Amino acid sequence: QVQLAESGGGWVRPGGTLRPSCAASRRISMNGVMGWFRQAPGKEREFVAAGRWHGASTSYADSAKGRFTISRDIAKNTLFLQMNSLTPEDTAVYYCAVGPRWVASHMFLGRQYDDWGQGIQVTVSS
Asked: Given the DSSP bridges, would you call strands 58-60 and 46-52 parallel, antiparallel or unpaired?
């Protein structure tokens, strides 16, 4: 199993940017996948973005597409979520995750992932 340590959350004004990161305790397998989810107060966990650890395949929620970018530094075992044009509706606890395989139609499902970060707070307000 992999331990995931998140950082880079915080407060930002509407229209601003944040880039949370998620450092894995060991290397990710060649077939592994990465994802970001979020959970707002009183709401269920929501898919944000996913991608292959190796390779170019990505998937984004409609709410994230065009604003957010999932990426990783393979050498550093670290994944990122670049978040631009943030709005108050993006306020949530954000969780990174890794899983064993890419299944394009399933990456929005939490069950596709085996290991999760501790969550970081992102607050967007003026």
From this structure: antiparallel
Q: Cα separation of 120 and 61, whole Å?
A: 19
DSSP 80-103: EEEE-S--GGG-EEEEEEEES---
Backbone angles phi and psi of 2, in degrees to 5: -120, 135
28 phi and psi, to 5 degrees?
-95, 145
Q: Nearest-CA neighbor of 4 among 120, 100, 107?
A: 120
**How confident is the model over 59-116, as pLDDT tens digits?**
999 999 999 999 999 999 999 999 999 999 999 999 999 999 999 999 999 999 999 9
Q: Name 57's Cβ contacts closer than 8 Å, sequence gap at least 6.
A: 51, 102, 104
